[in-house]
Amino acid sequence: MTALRPDLAIIAREVRAGARVLDVGCGDGQLMAALRDTKNVDARGLELNAHDVATSVSRGLSVIQGDADTDLAEYPDGSFDYAILSQTLQTTKRPDL
User: Fold this and answer.
1) pLDDT at 91
2) pLDDT, position 2
3) Quick check: 20 pLDDT over 90?
4) Neighbour tally for 25: CB within 10 Å
5) Which H or E element spans position 2?
6) The pTM is what?
7) Are 2 and 30 in contact (CB under 8 A)?
8) Rounded distance, CA 27 to CA 54, Å?
9) CB neighbours (10 Å) of residue 34?
10) What is the DSSP letter of 74?
């Protein structure tokens, strides 16, 4: 496994083993794969970039292409223990919503 970026390593340390995680703006799935492989996390991802979605899926990850501004409403409240937005929140149109 590739070493995680320092910010992702900090996030990974904070996620408890076996948790349900939604990684919003998951990129190529590097964090999700690390959490799956080291902490047995049930990770799901939402990513805007089609190439990154394909890369994530090729890693065996459950990632869909979507937009955080419109598609998060599809997930019922309480579906996840953690929602990770490592480099996503600043790009949303209405982060208050």
Assistant:
1) 64
2) 65
3) yes
4) 20
5) none
6) 0.87
7) yes
8) 10
9) 21
10) G
- What pLDDT sits at residue 95? 63
Place of tokens 């409240």: 77
Label the pairing between strands 42-47 and 62-65: parallel
Residue with tokens 């490592």: 86
Q: How many CB atoms lie within 10 A of CB 83?
A: 15
Question: Where are the chain's structural domains?
Answer: 6-90
Homologous superfamily in CATH for domain 6-90? Vaccinia Virus protein VP39 (3.40.50.150)
The alpha carbon torsion through 26, 51, 54, 6 (nearest 10 deg) reads -30
Of the candidates 79, 52, 49, the one whose C-alpha atom is nearest the C-alpha of residue 31 is 52
| Closest to 68 (Cα-Cα) out of 22, 28, 29, 30 | 22
